[in-house]
Design goal:
The complex is a heterodimer of chains A (700) and B (375). Chain A is of the alpha+beta class and 700 residues long. Chain A has 26 helices and 19 strands. Chain A folds into two domains: 189 residues, Penicillin-binding protein 2a (Domain 2) (Alpha-Beta Complex), CATH 3.90.1310; 434 residues, 3-Layer(aba) Sandwich (Beta-lactamase). Chain B contains 14 helices and two strands. Classes of the chains: A alpha+beta (700), B mainly alpha (375).
Chain lengths: 700, 375
């Protein structure tokens, strides 16, 4: 058993050699211990010298818990400094999930104190389940002082509940500015993922979701402050450290006149319409109104599914910014522009065309809106009477390819440099365009349809406004909305006498027995020059024509004609240009038709008291002011949907869709374009849209 | 080298003069410094740790001085019986633990909770030293020199491993193996053993270690994989040490320990608590102090006359060294978290007691060295 196990162990091990071996090994052990001791000291040095900065930082981030304080958002103010969007104090209550104890009891108490509806409670429970520990979950915002105080007083019973005072966005003029300013809302999950900015998930922080609030986000947001507290590993706050205050965002000054904007919105009444007012000297936009609209105040607080559905279902498309996104055949409003194009091409203003009420081109018959015919007309009278035959005949001779460049020079089909995320800029067609788009050649019928602003021609209301301003000034004004933004406005390549003649004709439309007499201003010394228009959205068959064309009032809303107007005032020294478009307005109610609306809005600019007085008289007949009407509509819709009355502080259930990008808006725009193209494409000779032309049915 | 009292100190009684005063003062300094550390760890309070640790320290230090009066030969006589008793107690712990359910490490013997595994750390050194003392010198390189020692080591190590207490089992094993090495067992055996161990570690991780022990080793290899679980201990301790810098954040100014970010800041991770406030200076001085104690133990071993005394002194010095270095390596992220406290610094009686036991025996050997060198 005890045999040597290793080869050379025959060697005798004596006590002396053993002692020597021990000494050797003990010294070796001591040396190894010394080396290891040096290694330990080296590691200490590495941690506390080389990596000191890194660990100091980590130790600080352990010790100090930083919560962002949402910055106060910059105001949006009008040209005079009046706020269009500002901030108001907001009392809110949040829950810090980490500090919440006895969830059921706390939520029960909150429901009782804040009178939270069941749908709210469901949302809070869901949010709490998805919450990330220290990240506050919103319970309620926009609380009145009483309920806020009630929560504050009972805080000892409510561990984890945090009542805070913050700011929320306020739009004093409500729906009137909805499509101008857009609205704000909490950041989406994607936005947080992209930036990883904890500010994004701080309750009370809102960012621009649509309109100027979105495009001017960078200016308006400001820099978040920081609340710093010293906390233990268990989250207990030991001490409050110095707080870094927020830096409020910068204000954005617009060229808008908020008084005019509000007036225009109210003046549109129950119509689905849009108004643009521009300064003829600078291109500044004084008003940009699209009605009906949503209330950006309630949007910023968040709206319910039901409210969203109500807005989506509305055939007046309140979610769409019609000024930039609505596309309409401009109808007869382009006739002054056509006239300028004719003069530019060398047509004499005195040359006459005989209007018999219809014109045969090839196998097709094109009708004038005046069934009996206008008789013999020169250019000025053709514009005043809005004669279709004159323009059919002249454009047939000239070809629309000679008109289109002038239309573009006046702003039609153009995209403008404006801080809005979506603009639709329509079409100014010509033969090259048609070849490109449909691979078919341009026909005479196409020219004729285009000559009266129908067929393939599509414009948005802003372009009509710009056309009015450029006709008025003779300069290539660029519309602008930010007060600090200046565009050059070179003179247009038109002869002053041509322009003067067009001005005269437009004056005649309103003041000289033309089709726009309803727009005549009552303010002494100020005359409005303009042009009315009607855009048809349906085909009129031969059989209908035989039996008498249906009046708009007898048609379903969606089939009624669009009503348009563009003009400027004063006629002899243009100061303001205006465009009014009523979707399916159909010229059915005189004081809600385009000429009367344009007249009153212009009157506001020159004689505010008179304008306000006439509005005060008319508004009650439309069901009250905007707010009253919206409340009534909402209540009616809720009753119809069988929903309970509006819950207090209902939360947003909106996805990331901005109103102007909502499916309902796309559908509405697509419908306009489709109707227009269908009319144009069915333009076989003898059976064209122009059979009824762009009628100037004088309002009854 | 002789410590015969100088003329000026003639009035000092011989027993006192024979004590290694430099080492005792050094131990006293470490112990008092530890009281400051524990006072700060409790947020500037002598309760709950500093006071009890201080009382224990002085009682145990007195005990160590008393042990130093025991004759060196007596240790040789009690080595194997004590080993036998401790093994029986380890089995008893196992049985009581089995009855109560769950791992148990201590035995309640009425007036004190005895942790036999802790006492086994110095005892294994004594037992192995005694074994090689009994072994005739020419047997050293034979198989008979190996298997009994291996058995002596593996029995308690396996029992402790079963508790389960990886740190202590490890300490017992390397303490015994060190004595084997010093006794002159062929070197190639250790080299071969080290290689075998390297191969066995992956197997051990998979089959022998408990889930949490396995985790600790895996997390040690990649601390970032689990920053909020076990890796949390290591990363927070590194933050404490690293943020202390060269001079520390100052007494009572540690944030990692005071705000509870550092787990076990008064026990296993007391070094991090200390270094956060005292910095690199405090850490290096502590290493130096322990190094001096260990080297003093080794010097005593080299001077010892009997084989038993040589092996015991060197083995105990090595035990103190392993204690200190395993803990420091663990706290600084150089070794897995195995639950070995830092003697004299970590709050807790067991490690204090083991250290004082080692110190007492070392002083006893030192004393007999001096008595023998007197002539």
């Amino acid at each position: 058993m005890n045999r040597p196990i290793f080869g050379q162990s025959q060697r005798m091990v004596t006590e002396a050699s053993q002692s020597y071996s021990f000494s050797r090994r003990a010294v070796a052990l001591g040396a190894a211990q010394g080396v290891f001791g040096l290694a330990l000291a080296g590691r200490m040095g590495w941690l506390s010298i080389v990596e000191n900065a890194q660990y100091t930082l980590k130790s600080e981030s352990n010790r100090v818990n930083t919560t962002p304080v949402p910055p106060r958002r910059g105001w949006i103010v009008d040209r005079h400094g009046t706020p269009i969007a500002n901030n108001r104090t907001d009392f809110r209550v949040d829950i810090i999930p980490d500090r919440l104890e006895n969830k059921g009891r706390v939520l029960g108490l909150l429901r009782e104190i804040l009178q939270l509806p069941p749908e709210q409670m469901d949302r809070i429970v869901t949010d709490l389940e998805n919450a990330a520990g220290f990240q506050p979950v919103q319970v309620a915002q926009n609380l009145d002082w009483e309920r806020f105080a009630a929560v504050s007083v009972r805080l000892p019973e409510l561990p984890g509940v945090a009542p805070t005072r913050g700011f929320s966005r306020s739009y004093p003029t409500g729906a009137a500015v909805a499509h101008l300013t857009g609205y704000v809302g909490a950041a989406s999950a994607e936005q947080f993922k992209q930036t990883r900015d904890p500010l994004m998930v701080t309750p009370g922080f809102k960012l621009g979701k649509d309109g100027l609030e979105k495009t001017l986000e960078h200016t308006l947001r400001g820099v978040a402050g920081q609340k710093r507290v010293e906390v233990t590993a268990r989250g207990k706050i030991v001490a409050e450290l110095a707080t870094k205050p927020d830096e409020p965002g910068a204000n954005a000054r617009l060229t808008i006149d908020i008084g005019l904007q509000d007036y225009a919105a109210r003046r549109l009444g129950t119509q689905s319409g849009s108004v643009v007012v521009l300064d003829c000297r600078t291109g500044e936009m004084l008003a940009m109104v699209s009605m009906p609209a949503y209330d950006p105040n309630s949007f910023s607080d968040g709206i319910s599914h039901l409210e969203w559905k109500m807005l989506s279902d509305n055939d007046h498309v309140p979610l769409m910014n019609k000024v930039l996104q609505g596309l309409y055949p401009p109808g007869s409003t382009v006739k002054p522009m056509n006239g300028l194009a004719l003069l530019h091409a060398g047509v004499s203003a005195d040359e006459r065309v005989f209007c018999s009420g219809a014109l045969r081109v090839g196998t097709g018959i094109f009708h004038c809106h005046q069934k009996r015919g206008h008789g013999s007309l020169d250019l000025k009278n053709a514009i005043m009477q809005s004669c279709d035959i004159y323009f059919y005949e002249m454009v047939r001779r000239l070809g629309y390819d000679n008109v289109a460049p002038v239309a573009r020079a006046l702003g039609l089909g153009q995209k403008f440099d404006l801080p809005f995320s979506s603009q639709r800029f329509g079409t100014v067609p010509d033969s090259a365009w048609k070849q490109r788009k449909y691979q078919t050649s341009w026909t005479v019928a196409d020219s004729l349809n285009a000559s009266i602003g129908q067929g393939y021609v599509l414009t948005n209301p802003l372009q009509l406004g710009v056309m009015a301003a450029r006709l008025a000034s003779g300069r290539g004004l660029q519309p602008r909305i930010l007060a600090d933004h200046v565009h050059p406005a070179p003179a247009l390549a038109v002869q002053p006498d041509h322009l003067a003649l067009i001005h005269e004709a437009m004056w005649g439309v309103v003041n000289g027995g033309g089709t726009g007499g309803a727009a005549r201003m009552l303010t002494p010394g100020i005359a409005l020059a303009g042009k009315t228009g009607t855009a048809q959205v349906r085909r009129i068959t031969m059989s209908e024509r035989a039996g008498g064309v249906l009046k708009n009032g007898a048609l379903p809303f969606k089939l009624r004609d669009h009503a348009l107007f563009q003009g400027f005032a004063p006629h002899d020294n243009p100061r303001y240009a205006i465009a009014v478009v009523l979707e399916h307005g159909g010229h059915t109610v005189r004081n809600l038709d385009t000429p009367a609306i344009a007249r009153d809005i212009m009157t506001y600019l020159f004689d505010k008291d008179r304008a306000l007085a006439s509005l005060a008289e008319a508004e009650p007949t439309w069901g009250g002011d905007i707010k009253t009407r919206m409340a009534a509509e909402s209540a009616a819709y809720r009753v119809a949907a069988g929903a309970p009355p509006l819950a207090i502080g209902a939360q947003t259930e909106l996805g990331a869709t901005a109103p102007t990008d909502a499916p309902a808006v796309r559908a509405a725009t697509a419908a306009d374009v489709a109707a227009s193209e269908a009319l144009a494409n069915s333009a076989a000779p003898g059976n064209t849209v122009a059979e009824d032309g762009s009628t100037e049915t004088d309002p009854q | 080298m002789s410590t015969r009292p100088a003329n000026g100190l003639a009035f000092v009684p011989a027993p006192l003069a024979q004590l290694p005063w430099k080492i005792l003062l050094l131990v006293l300094a470490i112990g008092c410094f530890d009281l400051l550390v524990l006072y700060s760890a409790a947020g500037g309070n002598i309760r709950p740790w500093a006071l009890s640790q201080g009382i224990r320290f002085f009682v145990l230090l007195a005990g160590a001085i008393a042990l130093s009066r025991i004759r060196e030969e007596t240790w040789g006589q009690i080595a194997l019986p004590a080993y036998g008793i401790l093994c029986v107690m380890l089995v008893l712990v196992e049985l009581v633990g089995a009855v109560r359910g769950g791992g148990q490490r201590w035995l309640d013997v009425g007036f004190i909770r005895l942790q036999p595994s802790e006492l086994m750390k110095p005892c294994i050194v004594l037992a192995c030293a005694k074994f090689y003392d009994l072994l005739p010198p020419n047997e050293t390189r034979r198989f008979g020199a190996i298997w009994p020692a291996a058995l002596l080591i593996l029995l308690p190590a396996a029992l402790v491993m079963k508790q389960p207490d990886l740190g202590t089992a490890l300490m017992i094993t390397i303490g015994g193996v060190t004595v084997m090495f010093l006794a002159g067992v062929p070197l190639r055996l250790f080299i071969g053993g080290a290689l075998a161990l390297g191969a066995a570690i992956p197997l051990a991780i998979n089959f022998v270690l408990h889930g949490y022990q396995k985790n600790r080793i895996l997390v040690f290899l990649d601390p970032e994989s689990d920053p909020l679980g076990i890796g949390y201990h290591i990363s927070q301790s590194k933050i404490a040490i690293g943020s202390g810098g060269i001079f520390g954040k100052g007494f009572l100014n540690g944030t990692q320990s005071h705000l509870d970010y550092l787990p076990e800041g008064h026990t296993d991770f007391a070094l991090a608590t200390m270094m956060e406030e005292w910095g690199l200076i405090g850490g290096v001085l502590l290493i130096l102090a322990f190094f001096v104690i260990v080297q003093w133990g080794l010097a005593a071993a080299l001077q010892a006359q009997s084989r038993f005394a040589r092996l015991t002194a060197a083995g105990l010095a090595a035990t103190i060294f392993y204690y200190v270095s395993i803990n420091m390596a663990m706290v600084m992220g150089m070794a897995p978290v195995v639950g070995v406290p830092l003697p004299l610094i970590s709050n807790g009686g067991s490690s204090q007691m083991t250290f004082m036991l080692c110190l007492g025996i070392l002083m006893s050997i030192d004393r007999s060295n001096r008595q023998t060198t007197r002539w």
